[in-house]
Design goal:
The chain folds into three domains: 7-148, 3-Layer(aba) Sandwich (Rossmann fold); 164-320, no CATH class; 340-401 and 455-522, no CATH class. The termini are far apart. It is built from 17 helices and 18 strands. 42% of the residues lie in helices and 16% in strands.
Length: 525
């Protein structure tokens, strides 16, 4: 039975300089045709890139079409006159040969007498594939070393993040340059190695953070707001702001919520430079979270957002959760969720809304599991009561008193831990209970540093202003404050009758408060 004839294609190329120097495409084509005929192959096409260099990253349309046709299995073997017609640099050649091997496409070079269609040629191609993997892995490691060194020096790797540019105004190629940036065509602001603030985009970044910190907007609503926002630049013209896209992927245009999410999570805007280094754990592949280690370096770029505001945004995003949407008014947040409990049956009280108003209701009544006498109460009233109670606790507060109280709490926790350890060794306390007491003791030790009065002063100074101006405090800040101060609060009717404080807040309680059990304060009789 006659062996089927292979379908072959040729590839030839000359650069503009080679054309001037007399190198001929016709000569290459003749050699390719003669070689294919001598091997008994059917030459179905010759791909030609004329006047194009084979240097790294050069754009060769016909080579790209050839590789696409190879993936589609339109032929069996590629023939070139010389290997340097295909690739001049080793990395590109080895990568291409490895791709062809994976697609079961052979390769032959006339001048070098390389034919990868024979058994020995296929073996050589496999060896070259292994060499390619070793070479490229080493190249990758060297590239990563270079990028890490740039990060150590505070220099950004890759395209400038939104809000920044290279500062090469006279020769600007930034997507948000010509026709958009007021500094386009002006003298350079940088040497191109150090990032500078983009005069329009940097202001957009500030707006995004300010709008989110107001507590009135979600990622989606900020994107929507920006897409109708015009910024007035110094020369008096109004510019419709836009995102700048990614070269080769997307073009400058309207904002989307995913971009807003990325902006709000980018620590780069604080002046820090994150470097993510991938590492392998053994020889197996693991999850990305296990592979990536992020290190923060001091960047040489100007900061756009303070570290304090950036952390506030991150805390808000954790507290609000991914399902929060700005279509809901900010009043729909319930700062006492997870804290407020019914003073009659002890069940949790949940936040509910009706006609745009906020309420707390006994969960057992919502689920119709019991018939508790506790009525539904207005949220503002319950929250205001607790704010007033906490403010009263801080009324006669002094640093000396807090230090003594803090020391007493730690001493009491230490005594409890010692007693628990004794009971555990005697077999009168199980492992879980002992571990719980041990964790409590460690938490109190780390939380209450009575040897450091500045820590307690900072705590009080962060709480008191929010309590004093409660009506103007953002709902998200209210929730954060109440969770920090209170473990549980008990409501009967419309009145908060008792609260249980956190270990962090206990040192701030004055001795005038009436104790009602461990960490508990009875607020009414």
């Amino acid at each position: 039975m006659e062996k089927p004839r292979l379908k072959a294609v040729g590839y030839n190329r000359v650069s503009m300089r080679e054309q001037i120097d007399g190198h001929s495409l016709d000569a290459q084509e003749k050699n390719i045709r003669d070689y294919a005929a001598s091997q008994g192959w059917d030459l179905i096409e010759i791909y030609t890139d004329a006047g194009i260099s084979a240097k790294k990253d050069s754009h060769r349309p016909q080579l790209e079409r050839l590789m696409s046709d190879a993936e589609a299995k339109k032929f069996d073997v590629i023939v070139v006159d010389k290997i340097d017609r295909f690739y001049r640099h080793l990395a590109g050649l080895l990568t291409a040969l490895d791709q062809l091997r994976s697609m079961d496409i052979s390769f032959a070079s006339v001048q070098e007498r390389l034919d990868f269609t024979s058994p020995w040629g296929k073996l050589m191609l496999t060896v070259l594939g292994i060499l390619a993997e070793i070479y490229l892995d080493n190249l990758r490691q060297e590239t990563l070393k270079g990028k890490h060194q740039r990060a150590r020096e505070g220099l950004w790797n890759g395209l400038p993040p939104y809000g920044y540019c290279k500062g090469l105004c006279s020769t600007c190629e930034d997507p948000n340059g010509k026709g958009y940036c007021p500094d386009f065509g002006k003298p350079n602001k940088s040497d191109g190695k150090h990032l500078v603030l983009h005069p329009v985009d940097s202001e957009v970044v500030k707006l995004v953070f300010n709008w989110y910190l107001s507590g009135k907007h979600s990622d989606a609503s900020i994107a929507e707001k920006l897409n109708s926002f015009q910024m007035t630049i110094p020369d008096g013209f109004a510019i419709q702001v836009r995102q700048k896209g990614h070269p080769g992927v997307s073009v400058a245009g309207p904002f989307k919520k995913d971009l807003i999410r990325d902006l709000l999570n980018r620590v780069f805007y604080t002046g820090k430079l994150p470097y993510k280094a991938s590492r392998e754990i053994g020889a197996r592949k693991t999850k990305r979270s296990e592979l990536d280690e992020v290190t923060l370096y001091e960047g040489k770029h100007p900061a756009l957002i303070s570290e304090e505001d950036f952390q506030k945004v991150q805390e808000m995003r954790v507290t609000l959760g991914s399902n929060w949407r700005a279509e809901r008014p900010t009043a729909q947040l319930y700062p006492l969720t997870g804290i407020l409990r019914c003073g009659y049956c002890g069940n949790a009280m949940r936040g509910v809304s009706s006609s745009g108003r906020r309420y707390y209701r006994d969960a057992s009544r919502i689920e119709r599991s019991t018939n508790c006498q506790q009525d539904t109460v207005r949220a503002e009233g319950a929250e205001r009561q607790i704010a007033d109670i906490l403010l009263e606790m801080l009324k006669d507060w002094t640093a000396d008193q807090a230090l003594e109280r803090s020391k007493a709490v730690v001493t009491e926790a230490e005594a409890r831990y010692d007693r628990a350890k004794e009971l555990y060794l005697l077999g009168e306390l199980d492992r879980d209970e002992f571990r719980k007491e041990s964790d409590r003791y460690e938490h109190i030790q780390s939380t209450l540093s009575y040897s450091n009065p500045n820590a307690i002063m900072t705590l009080v100074n962060s709480i008191r202003p929010a309590l004093e101006d409660w009506d103007r405090t953002l709902p998200i800040e209210k929730k954060k404050l109440l969770r920090m101060a209170i473990q549980a609060a008990y409501l009967r009717g419309n009145v908060i009758v008792a609260i249980q404080l956190t270990d962090s807040f206990m040192p701030l309680v004055t001795q005038k408060s009436c104790s009602s059990g461990e960490g508990g304060i009875r607020t009414h009789g």
